[in-house]
Amino acid sequence: MDLAVTSAQAAAATLAHAHRHNDFSAASLADYRQQLEHSTLWPLMEQYRHLPATLLNSPHWFSRYPQLSSDFLHDLFHVGAQPSVPLRHLLWRYARKAGLWQLLKDLRKGTRSL
Hints:
Elements: H1 2-20, H2 26-29, H3 31-37, H4 41-47, H5 51-57, H6 65-77, H7 87-98, H8 100-113
């Protein structure tokens, strides 16, 4: 949320400057980037610049993994008449459901993009 506020502040400062000078050209609005570069947001944008490409290149992040994590958390925290399954067994079950090799590849790509 703070990142969105910081970005909005940079955009507002850029638009206020453009309005004061009645100059809405591309050159004037390019000040937005300079505003971002001098903010606390820029280092984070640089640090995570490869993350969107990583997520978009693997469809599993948005199709398979959300449901698997939901099911995993349900099984982990479900209170029933039967004793709970040990965590390592539960993790192994869901890793196999996800496809262990694909899961490892996606995790590797994800951590490398950070």
